[in-house]
Amino acid sequence: xxxxxxxxxxxxxxxxxxxxxxxxxxxxxxxxxxxxTSSRVQLxxxxxxxxxxxxxxxGRRGLRPLRLSARLTAAANQxxxxxxxxxxxxxDSANGGSFFKRIAxxxxxxxxxxxxxxxxxxxxxxxxxxGGALRLWMNSPEHxxxxxxxxxxxxxxxxxxxxxxxxxYGGDEVTIVTADFGxxx
Length: 185
Known about the structure:
The chain has six helices and five strands, in the order E-H-H-E-H-H-E-H-H-E-E. By secondary structure, the protein is of the alpha+beta class.
């Protein structure tokens, strides 16, 4: 039997991009709305159930549900997979790049006057369930703040299972979960 262990981290950033352009200026890029691509997202049972629990938790507090974003899900998946393959646990990318730059490469801020992104990550024994993941995040003030942030409109989720995760995971069997949050308008 595997020991139960978990580690958490949360981060968020918000800014008005320096390339802000009003809708009346030439050269404004129109990004494809995330809702137009969310139908292409395939979630695992863990990811889908976690999304349901997050939205239920938000709804009980009078907050709007988060829409699934294909772009944020791609960012979350890339990060979970990278951490599992390279044996690190951080919001920063393996090359030291900041989390918001990584997310922005998938969930662009070009053409938007306001953009914000946040991230919750966790790793745990391989049998983490959606309720357990949500409890871990809700019991941490920083993660709870991200989950219950009124500003967020969209979410991307990724849970990656690694049978023999290297590095900080010590070769153990783990599940790594990344939740990327965002809004842009």
